[in-house]
Amino acid sequence: MKKKGVADLFLLFLMLYLLLPIVATAFYAFATEWNRTVLPEGLTFKWLAILFQDVEFIQAFGRSVLLSGSAVVLAFFFVVPAIFVIVLYFPKYEKWMQTIVVLVYAFPGVILAVGLIRTYTKLGIPMILAVLGVYIISIFPYIYQGTRNSLRNVNAKQLLDAAELLGASKRQAFVRVLLPAIYPGLFVGALLSFSILFGEFVLINLVVGSRFETVQIYLMEKLSTSGHIASAVVFVYLVLMGILTLAISVLTKQSKGLVKS
Amino acid sequence: MFFVLPLVNMFLSSFTDSEGFTLNQYKTALFNSYILQGFKNSITLSAVSAIVALVVSLFAVYAMMRFTDPVKERILVMINLTSNFSGIPLAFAFIVLLGNSGLFTLLFEKWNIDALASFSLYSWSGLLLIYIYFQLPLSLMLLYPIYYGIQQQWKEAAALLGANTVQFWMKIGIPVMLPGIVGTFSVLFANAMGAYASAYALTGSDYNLAAIRIGTLLSGDIFAQPELASAIAVLLGATMISAMVLSEWSIKKTRRNL
């Protein structure tokens, strides 16, 4: 019994360590003055209101959504079909996919940024497109894992064979049978990729800098000017991430239920 | 095209300067004590934060395992949420807590605990706290499935044969999990080596880390030296790859011993 108490206490401390910074920042976003006292002197919505009236922030937010969103959409148009084909019809090439996954993990943004700048500044294409390109690649592991797992879960190959045996064309089998079955899994991959890209700072800052101000860069600027506005930004960011995380966990549960039933 | 080409180009450019092929960039990188110190700092910070996160999560996952499935799931969702909390927002949150006029800093001042009140977030220990923070969710998520591999029957069998809990973990549990633990360590190590945003947001380019050096060499308006940055980037990449190869090798070795 005593041992159990120690373990619970340990877990509680861990959760505190993980949650305290989040809670404190959220508090700070609503605090009137909080420089000399331990607890905020009062609560206000002022900072959030100022933030949402700031055109710069709205634009930065739009840019972030646009950039991360289009990377995810493009990845789904070009990368997912390729994963389908390889997993379903050319399993022997899967080890190449695994290699790409490992490579993407092995090279962090700082290293890639160097390469990008060296390669694409001379070519004259807008650097933001180069960043977009790298974004598409950098979410590859998540999309690949998500797609492959859901294909495995539903026994995609047998499912397609069965549909074709029952008289469906290849296209019909794919669009009407396979896609609806793996849709939740794909959606989870997309949300996860989006949330990861939304938090990306290194590449965009080093390669494009303030010429394409995303939320992260906006936040970095506000860090040195106004703590309250910065915490309001973090708060908005956290709410967005919370929604995405919940959506992911609900969808994951759904897709698991789909397989069981 | 957006991945391999830049890497190859970077590799090539690390061997050049304005006059052509040279090894000078590496000579600078390897013999400049400032850059070397950056590497040393990066490696220590990554290794220490990875070990702390690993040990903490080993116990945490063990504690988690005794809960029912719905509770476990809720904890996992929470961990997932914190795993998105990294980079600049994370650095900011720690400034709110422990910065110059942070919540805890003020609290400790009030209680007259000078040792804690004078804690500087903008130093090695501050960075370590933040690094451990973003390592923890990742390490928990990676260790969780490994723990699942330990089956209840093994424990029962071991208990029947007269082993106590400690003996079970020393002789069976830990050895079975070891490859997974080593693998997790290398991922964590690489994760910290490549981290840039949190350290940058916290200390600007004041604290000497390899990743920060690359950033300043790239964006420095006066002293931009992309070739030198390339060389450091290649060395950083090499450090991470060797860490991964090393763990791969030790995994194979432990598997053979089993």
TrEMBL record, chain A:
PROSITE patterns per record: ABC_TM1
Protein name as annotated: ABC transporter permease
Membrane topology (UniProt): Multi-pass membrane protein
InterPro entries: MetI-like, MetI-like_sf
Pfam families recorded: BPD_transp_1 (PF00528)
TM region(s), chain numbering: 9-31, 65-89, 96-117, 123-144, 181-208, 228-251
SUPFAM superfamilies in UniProt: MetI-like (SSF161098)
Keyword annotations from UniProtKB, A to Z: Cell inner membrane, Cell membrane, Membrane, Transmembrane, Transmembrane helix, Transport
Keyword Cell division attached: no
Family the entry assigns: Belongs to the binding-protein-dependent transport system permease family.
ABC transmembrane type-1 domain boundaries: 61-252
